[in-house]
């Protein structure tokens, strides 16, 4: 288990934020799921933007 703090990632298209600490249970992503563990073909649940078009954000 990593000691790194959880990070958040924001969709460039719609502003949806994925928080590693909270996960997204509706998307099958348990709390604590790291960004790197999400499949590369995952898309934004709000607008369908590809994972590659998300940016890490400091909240």
Automatic annotation (TrEMBL):
<dbReference type="InterPro" id="IPR024922">
    <property type="entry name" value="Rubredoxin"/>
</dbReference>
<comment type="function">
    <text>Involved in the hydrocarbon hydroxylating system, which transfers electrons from NADH to rubredoxin reductase and then through rubredoxin to alkane 1 monooxygenase.</text>
</comment>
<keyword id="KW-0479">Metal-binding</keyword>
<dbReference type="InterPro" id="IPR024935">
    <property type="entry name" value="Rubredoxin_dom"/>
</dbReference>
<feature type="domain" description="Rubredoxin-like">
    <location>
        <begin position="6"/>
        <end position="57"/>
    </location>
</feature>
<feature type="binding site">
    <location>
        <position position="44"/>
    </location>
    <ligand>
        <name>Fe cation</name>
    </ligand>
</feature>
<feature type="binding site">
    <location>
        <position position="14"/>
    </location>
    <ligand>
        <name>Fe cation</name>
    </ligand>
</feature>
<dbReference type="GO" id="GO:0009055">
    <property type="term" value="F:electron transfer activity"/>
</dbReference>
<dbReference type="GO" id="GO:0043448">
    <property type="term" value="P:alkane catabolic process"/>
</dbReference>
<feature type="binding site">
    <location>
        <position position="11"/>
    </location>
    <ligand>
        <name>Fe cation</name>
    </ligand>
</feature>
<keyword id="KW-0813">Transport</keyword>
<comment type="pathway">
    <text>Hydrocarbon metabolism; alkane degradation.</text>
</comment>
<keyword id="KW-0408">Iron</keyword>
<protein>
    <recommendedName>
        <fullName>Rubredoxin</fullName>
    </recommendedName>
</protein>
<dbReference type="Pfam" id="PF00301">
    <property type="entry name" value="Rubredoxin"/>
</dbReference>
<comment type="similarity">
    <text>Belongs to the rubredoxin family.</text>
</comment>
<feature type="binding site">
    <location>
        <position position="47"/>
    </location>
    <ligand>
        <name>Fe cation</name>
    </ligand>
</feature>
<dbReference type="GO" id="GO:0005506">
    <property type="term" value="F:iron ion binding"/>
</dbReference>
<dbReference type="InterPro" id="IPR018527">
    <property type="entry name" value="Rubredoxin_Fe_BS"/>
</dbReference>
<dbReference type="InterPro" id="IPR024934">
    <property type="entry name" value="Rubredoxin-like_dom"/>
</dbReference>
<dbReference type="InterPro" id="IPR050526">
    <property type="entry name" value="Rubredoxin_ET"/>
</dbReference>
<keyword id="KW-0249">Electron transport</keyword>
């Amino acid at each position: 288990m990593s000691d790194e703090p959880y990070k958040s990632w924001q969709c460039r298209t719609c502003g949806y934020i994925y928080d590693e600490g909270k996960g997204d249970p509706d998307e099958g992503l348990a709390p604590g799921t790291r960004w790197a563990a999400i499949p590369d073909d995952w898309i934004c649940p709000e607008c369908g933007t590809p994972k590659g078009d998300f940016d890490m954000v400091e909240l």
